Design the sequence.
C-alpha cells in the first residue's frame, strides 16, 4: 500500500537518522553543560561562603557574583547560539529523511536549502548506537497496509506523541530545581549579616544565570506545549472520513512539523531515557487506533 517501511531502512536514510541524532545529542550536551555550570556550580559557590574568607584568601561572595554575571552573558550569546545552530541542522536532516521516506517533495521556500551531505556524513560517523533504541524501523509497523496518504499522516502524528507530557514534567522539574537553589542561597546568606549590598552580591548575582535559564525553559517549553496542542487540532482537521488527505495538505503539515522541530527547546537525554519505553508503547497503540 505504501513504501514507507521499505524507504526508512535504506542505507542513506539510516545515515540521516544517525546524523540527526548526533546533531541533537551535541546540542543536548551543550545544554547539559549549561545546566551544570549554572545550578551545581552556583550551589557549590554558595556552600563555599560558609568557609571564612581568611581561610580561602579571597572574597568568595564577590567571585560568585562575577561568575554569575559572566555565565549569564555566556548563556545568552554562546551556549544558546550553538544549541540553536545544531538543533536547526538536526531538524533539516530529519526533514530530508521524512521527505525521502514519504516520497514527498522538499519545500525550498519554507525550509530552505537541503543540508549538505558533508554535514550528514560528519555527524553520522560520530554516532554511537543507543541500546534499545535502534535506527531501523523508525516508524510503526502498523502503517504497513495503509494507503500512502493515511500512512504519511499517521507517521506525522507519531512525531508529536513524545512531546507535551514530557515537556510539562521537565518544566516542573526545572522550576523545582531553581526554587531549591534560591532557597539554599537565601539560607546560606542569612547565616551572615544581610545588607542590601550583600543581598545583591550573595543572592541575586549568583542566582542570575539560574533565573535566566529557568525562565527560558518555562517560556520555551510552554510555547512548545501550546504549539503541539494547536498542531494536534490542525492535524485532526486534515482527516476526512470520506476522503484521503491530499499530498498538498500533508506537505503543509510537514512544514509545521519542521518548524516545530527547529524551534522547540531540547530535553536532556537523561530525562527522556526514563520515559522512552512508555512513550514508544503509546506511539504503537495510537498508530494501531489510526489503522482501525
Sequence:
Amino acid at each position: 500500500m505504501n513504501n514507507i517501511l521499505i524507504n526508512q531502512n535504506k542505507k542513506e536514510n539510516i545515515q540521516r537518522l544517525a546524523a540527526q541524532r548526533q546533531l541533537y545529542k551535541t546540542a543536548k550536551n551543550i545544554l547539559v553543560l549549561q545546566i551544570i555550570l549554572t545550578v551545581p556550580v552556583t550551589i557549590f559557590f554558595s556552600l563555599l561562603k560558609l568557609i571564612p574568607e581568611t581561610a580561602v584568601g579571597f572574597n568568595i561572595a564577590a567571585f560568585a557574583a562575577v561568575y554569575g554575571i559572566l555565565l549569564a552573558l555566556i548563556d545568552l550569546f554562546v551556549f544558546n547560539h550553538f544549541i540553536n545552530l545544531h538543533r536547526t541542522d538536526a531538524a533539516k536532516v530529519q526533514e530530508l529523511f521524512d521527505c525521502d521516506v514519504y516520497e514527498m517533495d522538499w519545500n525550498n521556500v519554507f525550509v530552505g536549502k537541503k543540508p549538505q551531505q558533508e554535514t550528514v556524513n560528519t555527524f553520522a560517523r560520530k554516532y554511537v548506537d543507543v541500546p534499545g533504541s535502534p535506527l531501523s524501523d523508525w516508524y510503526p509497523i502498523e502503517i504497513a497496509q495503509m494507503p500512502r496518504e493515511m500512512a504519511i499522516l499517521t507517521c506525522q502524528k507519531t512525531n508529536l506523541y513524545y512531546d507535551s507530557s514530557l515537556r510539562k514534567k521537565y518544566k516542573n522539574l526545572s522550576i523545582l530545581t531553581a526554587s531549591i537553589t534560591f532557597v539554599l542561597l537565601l539560607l546560606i546568606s542569612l547565616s551572615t549579616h544581610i545588607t542590601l549590598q550583600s543581598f545583591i552580591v550573595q543572592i541575586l548575582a549568583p542566582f542570575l544565570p539560574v533565573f535566566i535559564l529557568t525562565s527560558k525553559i518555562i517560556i520555551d517549553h510552554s510555547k512548545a506545549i501550546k504549539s503541539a496542542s494547536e498542531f494536534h487540532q490542525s492535524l485532526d482537521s486534515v482527516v476526512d472520513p470520506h476522503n484521503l488527505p491530499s499530498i498538498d495538505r500533508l506537505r503543509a503539515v510537514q512544514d509545521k512539523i519542521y518548524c516545530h522541530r527547529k524551534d522547540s527547546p531540547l530535553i536532556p537525554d537523561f530525562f527522556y531515557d526514563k520515559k522512552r519505553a512508555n512513550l514508544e508503547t503509546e506511539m504503537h497503540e495510537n498508530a494501531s487506533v489510526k489503522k482501525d
Q: What stands out?
A: Residues 4-291 form one domain.
